[in-house]
UniProtKB/TrEMBL annotation:
UniProt keywords, alphabetically: Coiled coil, Signal
InterPro entries per UniProt: Chaperone_Skp, Skp_dom_sf
Identification of the protein by name: Periplasmic chaperone for outer membrane proteins Skp
Cleaved signal peptide residues: 1-24
Family: Belongs to the Skp family.
GO cellular component, one term: cytosol
Biological-process GO terms, alphabetical: protein stabilization
Claim: Coiled coil is one of the keywords in the record: yes
Coiled coil: 72-132
Provenance organism: Parapedobacter pyrenivorans
Length: 204
């Protein structure tokens, strides 16, 4: 695990969360049979469809969703511990190398070869530990992002069905797939309130 990988943990999950939100389009079709007499005009139909398209601000959602905050803290703590462990192992190895370099001139050829081989093995072990720790962190990060995605999309599917929304879009300043949306179509606060309420119940 590299130092940059660990230090970038919050940014990585935030970016991943936003990308997943941008992919979460919820379609809820509640078509029922109607008689020709009850069919509205093309203009009225278009207006009704527009009113059933809403959007969620992904930046606000990630900033204020308590579940995501807890995930971020969890990953930050894991990154700090892993970095501290790696630093400790690296420092110990460097001390061994420095000790060998100091004693090498007075060591026999056989002892020097034996020590160098041992240090080479330790260096390989340190590299493998680094790789394994990095892979473990990436796997946990991906798992947490998947849980975040599922929680949000599962709720939006239910919410869209209850409200009769045909499409739920997401907006993010860092990835503006939606260039403009009327504020009257935004449902971020109601979604955020409901998600935080559900998470608060779970934590109790």
């Amino acid at each position: 695990m590299t130092k940059n990988k660990m230090n970038n943990a919050p940014a990585l999950i935030a970016k991943a969360g936003i990308c997943m939100l941008l992919a979460a389009a919820v379609v809820s079709c509640n078509n029922q049979g109607t008689s020709p007499a009850s069919t509205s005009s093309a203009g009225d139909s278009t207006q009704a469809t527009v009113e059933k398209i809403v959007y969620v601000n992904a930046d606000t959602l990630l900033e204020k969703y308590e579940y995501f905050k807890d995930i971020r803290v969890k990953l930050e703590d894991k990154a700090k511990k892993a970095q501290a462990d790696l630093q400790s192992r690296s420092n110990a190895f460097q001390r061994e190398v420095a000790d060998y370099q100091q004693k090498a001139p007075t060591m026999s050829a056989a002892d020097r070869q034996s020590t160098e081989e041992r240090l080479a093995r330790k260096q390989d072990e340190l590299a493998r530990h680094n790789q394994n720790a990095s892979a473990s962190f990436a796997q946990e990060e991906a798992s947490e992002n998947e849980k975040l995605y599922s929680r949000i999309t599962d709720y939006l599917k239910k919410h869209a069905k209850e409200k009769g929304y045909k499409l739920v879009l997401t907006y993010s300043a860092s990835n503006p797939a939606v260039l403009y949306a009327d504020e009257s179509l935004e449902i971020t606060n109601e979604v955020l309130t409901a998600l935080n309420a559900e998470y608060t119940k779970e934590k109790k």
